[in-house]
Structures are given as C-alpha cells and as structure tokens.
Amino acid sequence: KRQQNAMHKHKISDWKNVKVQKSSPQWTSESARNAARAVLFGLTIGRADDVAKAMAVLSGEHFPEDIRPIYDIIKRRIEAGKSIEVRHLIDEEIDFNLCFKSRADIAIAESEAELSSLLFERALYVREQYIKNSMVTMMSEQIMKLEGGEDVFDIMMTTEQEIGALYPSDIQGGLVDVGTIVMKEINNAFMDRTEKESLYLKTGFADIDAKINGFMPGEFVVVGARPGMGKTGFGVSLSLNLVRKGIPHAFFEVEMTKEQLTRRYISQLTGVPVTTLSFGEMNPKQREAVEGSFNKVIRLNSLLSIDDSSEATPIYIRNRTKQLIAERGIKLIIVDYLQKLPSGNKFSSREQEVSYLSGQLAKLAKDCNIVVVAFVQLNRTVEGRQDKRPSLADIRDSGSVEQDAHKVGFIYRPEYYNIQQFESGEDALGKADIDWQKNRDGSIGRCTLCFDDKLTRFRDKPMDTTWTNHNTRDYNNS
User: Is the pTM of this model over 0.70?
Assistant: First the structure.
C-alpha cells in the first residue's frame, strides 16, 4: 500500500518550497526520498538482471546525502562479488548501520523495498528527481544573479552549459573504460550471425534489412532524393515499421506542420489518400477505415514523438532528443530534412553551413548512441542524366554530408520520369529503388520496394494484395 501511495504521490511538485543552497540539490519531496530509499533496499533483494539494469542508470549523487553511503556500499560490494543482502550489510558494514537510528528503522525500510520488476522504472524516477532538484537549485541561483545585475547573455550561456551537464552520462557520451569496450567487442565477435544481427535496429523492410542488416545504434544515416520521390513518405513508412516492432522513436519535421505529417500517418494506416483526408469527402468504406483506426493511433502515441518546430537547430534537436531518451527511451530519430534545418550560426558559405548541420547530427548519433536518419535534397544535375539515377556527388550544398554519414541511400522511382523498366528489365511501375551507395560496415546495393503513389507509402514487394485498392487490415497484426 505504501508503494502504491508513493507511485501516486511522486508526480506532486513541491518545488516552490525549495530553499536555495548553492550547488546542493534540496530533497524536499518526502515521496521522492521514500522512493530513493525503496530503490536502495530493492537492490538488496532484486534479481541480478534487474539490479544490473537499475545500477546502470544510477550513481551515488542521485540519492539524498543521508542515505548516499548505502548506495556506495552496495556498489562496492557488487564490484567485489560480495553479498548485498541486508543481513550481511548489517553484520559487515559499519557505515550502513550509521545511516539508521535503530535495527527497527532498518526493518521498516527493508519492508518497503521496491519490487524487483519495478526496480529499473523506479531507478529512472529517482534519477529524474535528482535532476529536477538540481535544476531548481541551479535556476534559483541564476535568478539571483539576474537580480544582482549580472549580464543576461553570460547567464544564458552558463545556464545552457549547466543544464547540459545535468544530462545522465548514458545519454551524454564521454570517457569510457577501454577494457570494457574491448571485452564487449570480443564477446560480439564470438556471437553467431543471428545474435550479431540482433544488435541492429531493423528497418522493417525485408530487402533493406537483408542488404545492410538495418541500422546500428550510433549511426548517422542519410537518405537522399529529388523532390517528388517521396522522402517524407519513406520516413513515415519507416516510422510505422518501427511502431510495429515496438521501437520508440521521434520524427523532427521542419517542412510540414505536425497536422500535415499526421495526415500522412493516417493515410498510410487506413489506406485513405491524403488528398481525401485534407480536401475531399470520404466514402462509407473510407469512413469506416478511419473510424476503425483508433487502436492504431493509440499505439502510435505510445511509440512516436513528433516535433514540427521551425526553429529546430542542431542544439534544439540534441536537447529534445536527450529529453526523449530519458523520458521515453527513444532509439532513433528521423529528420526531414537536413538542408531545411536552421543552423543557429552565421557561415560564410552555404556549403559550410550544411557541413556543420550534418556534423552535428552525426555527433548526436554517436554521443547518444542512437540512430539518426536524415533526409537530404539532391541537386538538379540528376535530371540531366538519361537514367536519372542519383549519386553521392548529387547531395545538395554538400561539403561533408557523405563523409559524416555511416550509410547513404537514395530513393529512385523510374515511374516519376516516365521510365517503364529498371536497367535489369524488371517492370518499374509502382516500384522504387533504395540505392545504398555507402555503408561503412557492410555491403552496398539496390533494394526494391513497392510504392503507392496515392498514399506515398513504401512496402516490401511483392505488394500485399490486402493493401491494394486502399483496403485495410489490422495494423497491430501486420
């Protein structure tokens, strides 16, 4: 019952009662303190895998000072291979006993220990409370400086730096132990093919996953195309595939509004053309399809975050991504599209600006260990070729985009240029090539998908007949 009460109370904010004390976060919320203690004692009784997951996101600073020694003791004993059961802590650790007034207090705390199955979730909450309390203290200090007459721009810069430093290390990048990485890579090398492939984030397109294995966390993936090829449609189709696989992700759209983008999702989910959703009148069958899409939209809501800010600079995207990693555990972001992003800085040439944008997105992927998929616009030189096929040199305003990217693919639809067949002689009507021309860690080549022009939807070939004529099927089972 106490655990349930704590779960209900932890959302209550009492930041107004915080008293400023420089560089020392104040734990004024009793529910937050109780949660921190419950997590500590939950570690002592939790299953090994649950304890390991919780410890991966925790550090001593996340706990109030009076019980922080308990975490340090538990961490030290785990590293030494010693038992962390409470009875052994009582018998062998003097500092543990000093954190309590009596054995009765220890018994009460032990009875309120967090359940093993909730340990990771509650560990994230404890970390979040530390960050919140630190921000309250830090912002209070900055307000005092403003009122004291200090330069507002200096304070803005300092605030941004201090907020950036509050991001947890697992979503911030930085120094790592070389031995740990070496052992990890050696273990990966001994994995069988199936285990190695499981490390990749699959796109949900069978032909693409067979060719490039999918995307590896930390990769910056560039997908280029001329206007009309369906860049945004491909992004939405990829996003829906991720939803099917239960992978949380975010879509940064700087060209369309969130309403326009959402219509693309509804169109691909229901089989109702975007033009009909926007301007036309739906027939009874289409109305039924849209009305029956409620469960699909609910699943979208739990796994997809959309941001249509027109001021989505690389710094903005980095901060929002870190926030979404901490809150929703996203694994991938889609950026539509790179050349439309505002840089937030002044450059002497457009090429330098685009190089800066691509470099920042590549750095974001590496630092946060997530996949960043960015669409790019291609030069008009593509139109002058007989086959209209794009190449790496066609990336518009390109300085280092192709160099920064781990993988580069191009969307090519011969039908758009009234070309009826691929070079192989295969019928090109209703099809699109995703031509991978760069892959640092694997093979390159062309992957053919089916393309529905009315829905701007990409799918594996041969196209599932249940999707033709705008019929619908159960999304959760597809």
Answer: no
